[in-house]
């Protein structure tokens, strides 16, 4: 008969998830989560209840995994919350909608400090607050033994406000390709952090907390945008999604793109010069800035915040830059592919 193993005393911090417990964690997180204007029933019941004046709901989900999408030694808890929210709010905006609420699934090791989770909740709330949105529910679970990583799954719900959704499939030959927001900054900040630096601060901050142009999505829908997407994996890669879904050729004007993204000169040129690279590699293929890319009828004025950077033409679906295929242009500026690809 084997003897029972002696209990090993735990040394978890007093505010760890294991010590505080599931409902203690939920209470602390909800205290920092804000209030959603669309919520009739908020957190606390089996499900939330939201008002949907439009009668339709836009829904999207993103998963952030520690070590892949964020590092706790590079980003504060608040940074992680902002970033997790931004990835979803931008997707809703890219449909021409406004986010109304978030649902958050959390898996974390039992020794995770609850103060860190409170910081994530505060970041989520701060990113959502200007839109009148907030976290209205979710779930918590212990991470797999030995994994040690935090996983955040965020679902965003949005309202179209009576507008038709702007899909990726509506671009037509003759349309103008336009950009709202900035490109390359998050990738530049990541390059800085990977080398152990935290300056230029503006580039690093852009990686930690993206600043998507949320209002530009509904504005584009109201101005008659024919197609739109969030640039999360890189301009060339995401423009490729528009081209394939719409069955068109997209031509990017490099000079116009430079004017829209690299003028006046700033941190991207400084870091690229220090590293011996080309800032256009970040502009063309860098992800996680969550700019918006859209196509508009040529005869209509672009809404505020949008800048023309190319054109839509008939032809084999794909992306070209000044007459060169996207893959060749990406290679010429030293990029590995046209953008981020999961599992590659």
Automatic annotation (TrEMBL):
GO MF terms, alphabetically ordered: ATP binding; magnesium ion binding; thiamine-phosphate kinase activity
InterPro entries for the chain: PurM-like_C_dom, PurM-like_C_sf, PurM-like_N, PurM-like_N_sf, ThiL-like
Family according to the record: Belongs to the thiamine-monophosphate kinase family.
Ligand binding (Mg(2+) 5): 233
Domain PurM-like N-terminal: 44-158
Pathway(s) the chain acts in: Cofactor biosynthesis; thiamine diphosphate biosynthesis; thiamine diphosphate from thiamine phosphate: step 1/1
Protein known as: Thiamine-monophosphate kinase
Alphabetically ordered keywords of this record: ATP-binding, Kinase, Magnesium, Metal-binding, Nucleotide-binding, Thiamine biosynthesis, Transferase
Binding site for Mg(2+) 4: 46, 60, 91
Residues annotated as binding substrate: 69, 288
Organism: Geodermatophilus pulveris
